[in-house]
Amino acid sequence: QVQLVESGGGLVQPGGSLRLSCAASGFTFSTYAMTWYRQAPGKEREWVARITGSGGSTSYADSVKGRFTISRDNAKNTVYLQMNSLKPEDTAVYLCRAGRSPGYWGQGTQVTVSS
Asked: Which of 90, 81, 82, 80 minimizes the C-alpha distance to 111?
C-alpha cells in the first residue's frame, strides 16, 4: 500500500526556516520523481519544487527559487524541503506527490508564517 506522510510544518516568524519531510512507502521510491506542492486557503494548488528519482536534477517555482531547497535520501525513502527566509505568502498546506499526475499524494502539513 502506497503511503506518503508529510511532517515538519508549524508556525514560524517571517525570515525563519523550516524543514519539511515526506516519508514514502509501498513503492520503489528511487524510481519516482518527487514534487512538493502547496495550497493556500482560497487559492489553487501551486507547484513548488521537483526532484528526479536519482536526485540529480531539481527545479523550483520562481516564487521560492533561492530560498527553498529540495533534496532526497533514497536510503530513507524520504524527500525534504528546506525552506529559508520564509514570508507570510508562503503560508499554505504543503503536500508531496510521487510520480507524474495523478501520482500518489500525501495528506499535507500546515506551514504558517506569521509574526
From this structure: 90
Question: What's the rounded Cα separation, in Å, for the pair 31 and 43?
Answer: 31
Written as tens digits, the pLDDT of the chain (115 aa) is 999 999 999 999 999 999 999 999 999 999 999 999 999 999 999 999 999 999 999 999 999 999 999 999 999 999 999 999 999 999 999 999 999 989 999 999 999 999 9
| Residue 84 identity | N
Q: Measured between alpha carbons, how far is 51 from 49 in angstroms, rounded to an integer?
A: 7
Residues 6+ apart with CB under 8 A from 3: 24, 25, 26
Lookup: cell for 52: 528526479
- Provide the grid cell at 33: 520523481
Cis ω before 102 (30° cut-off from 0): yes
Q: What DSSP string runs through 16-78?
A: --EEEEEEEESS-GGGS-EEEEEE-TTS--EEEEEE-TTS--EEE-TTTTTTEEEEEETTTTE
